[in-house]
């Protein structure tokens, strides 16, 4: 008994399958996790090390180099990059893509051990390893509190953080941009000198005044009581009342210094929301939780807290991942429903309502059953997984169409439903299974690719695999059962089911093609050659721009600019945005980027000369015009800085569209090469806009000229001079003031209203126990241009030239314009170049995919050979695959869309559909020939019988893609499938039969002669 017959005669099993899919799907829809885009693991860690007083080059060679040398011993490491600034090292470690997220904790432990083994110079701090670099705080608010004191803002942030951390499903909360306060101690140096009290003596007194130390404990009997240090006075006035002992005298701090609490003049970060001072609150959900559910809980808790939040406080959403995810999921579900409706409507028109119900019900069960298994396997409902269902729609419906079509034809000849189901599935279920597995294997390269792109697109492979296998199971169980219930048995005797005008016209066309077979083959080869040539000229793209209605502003003043100067420049942009009706909101960050609120967002490292904006519009359609106007305004109003706007991009990647890395040993040579490269780029392409290097400009550094003889005579060291200069400028850290959970620095500095110059300062000599005028130990100051931003990659000095491009061209187009000229540069011995940016990201993704595809295609070829137990039939089918690019080129060329990475996925899908149709057709020809039909009639008969299923599957797939034409991520894929499948239908129904005829003509003629000879021998008339 066949599976199809059993599904009819034992309906309880069939209903178990139906109810299992329906109820499981309903449960899955209600419990499945939701995301906007699939998650991928950021396999990076950051190591931060302080080295106060060192130049950027000293930091690179004395701190970064030892740490990098230890890290390089780890086999798991792919790249090591470091950013070296005066006084600090920031090293970023990227792990090889072959390691998945489950292996990272052990790798991070090994990394910490390696970093701890590094031998660092005296004065360098303990390296801090941050392996939570990729945490996403997708519920992101800007909070404004006009009229509130700095302390009140801190209290508000603490309150919100405490309350929201208690919400179920919240993993972490990050607060940024709070006012940075300090307790300032400004001594009267005249009094201090008279009393012989140095700033270092003040710092020593302040640092021990409120330090936390162990006071021991006492034992009494069996118990032990802990003794605490005396409780400190937590007021600024108490700090002013501290005593300083010098020469047997005890003075209060307020006798010789002004002590007060105030905001720091040069904070590390300034945030404004719509022009108003703000701080941000980022909320991250647990990875095991549905972010939509977590977001709703947070919203509910905020509503409950509204009565406790002071009046005047406003929480403005910058990004609400839970709302974005819900809207995106709902929109995609609507697209999916629309696609299913289109498929059913096409089937109803072409096959009648009964067949439409049978195939449509099978398709619906496939979709809801897939959702059930997605939830079972922890595959979230997101853009890629939902898109996979639409992409696979043609292959999903094809299995059911083949079975339903076969049953209808058999029942037209008077056979009952059981026999019709038997016949329809017996001859097609194995070819359909093989073709289904081949369709799945077409995407296996994506699913098994170990890089971030493969991880990002894994759900595409998983969902297509689940849905296609489920569609085959349902096609040989549920479709026969429903067909037996709905299809009518009509005995029309010898009536030809394919005798209609449409089938006759196709038969005549195919007969003509078989007669003109060589002309058809030559024409296809010529067309394919032309299209392959045109394909090479199609614009290439990695991932398209996101359809989230926001974009970014990046602004950089010359290196060395203060954060306040940068803030003033950003205020000019804010004033312009305030006048625009197409701007919903904007958030300004000065000094560094924002908290990572999206997985694809990467913040700029801290730099006082850097300004950043997140600008939100009502719709993505408004962005191009607004962005162009803003670019023009920025170039005109802020000519002294580098002004750039940038769209948010789907998927992994990052960096500038065009990047060129130059590596070598001499920073000066690298700067010269970078300038040369920028000149070549400008001359080679008119499509480049702003250009820059990641070393930025050199800064003028003020350096005292140390008089060795006089200084040593006076007992003054270089450190003594550095300390007094720090006191006279930024101030010296003198301890910590504790206020609840806050640690506020105490800064000892020269009074702001002091008229003293640097040459007026006095230096305390520890050896002599007295002050010495600084002019006695230095020979003045000199200005020196110096690199203050030194980048390294894999232990070599590396400068990166970055460039933006015009919005109407792709990075691949620009790269093709400039690559030859750049690669012709004459580099000195020991220097090298490498491309970064989109070219590198795309190349790495395609290389990772390329490593997996050969095995996938080998399995596909082997399956096709096993199915036919022959070589010629699979060869015929595989010869069609390169020709499928013809329709792709025509479709993308007519629409002007680039061939993106998602279009590549569409091409893989197309190859799977083409091979699947080819297998079923060639198998049908073989069966008819096996039943005794001659070659040419068998080809025409089999092709005619496959005409309706192939055309219907193509039509339903093409029309089902219509909802994706409005999705920025999937549009190029949709056009690839639509154009390619339209042409692939011709290949399946015309080219495959023609090739079969050519390959088997001699064998067919021999069979006809043998058959004729047998007929003569048996007396049967020819």
From TrEMBL:
Keywords: Membrane, Transmembrane, Transmembrane helix. GO terms for cellular component: plasma membrane. The chain crosses the membrane at residues 12-29, 355-374, 386-410, 430-449, 456-478, 516-536, 857-881, 887-908, 950-971, 977-999. Pfam families: ACR_tran. InterPro entries: AcrB_DN_DC_subdom (IPR027463), Acrflvin-R (IPR001036). The keyword Membrane applies. One of its GO terms (molecular function) is xenobiotic transmembrane transporter activity. It comes from the Bacteria. This is Multidrug efflux pump subunit AcrB. It comes from Tropicimonas sediminicola. The lineage of its organism: Bacteria, Pseudomonadati, Pseudomonadota, Alphaproteobacteria, Rhodobacterales.
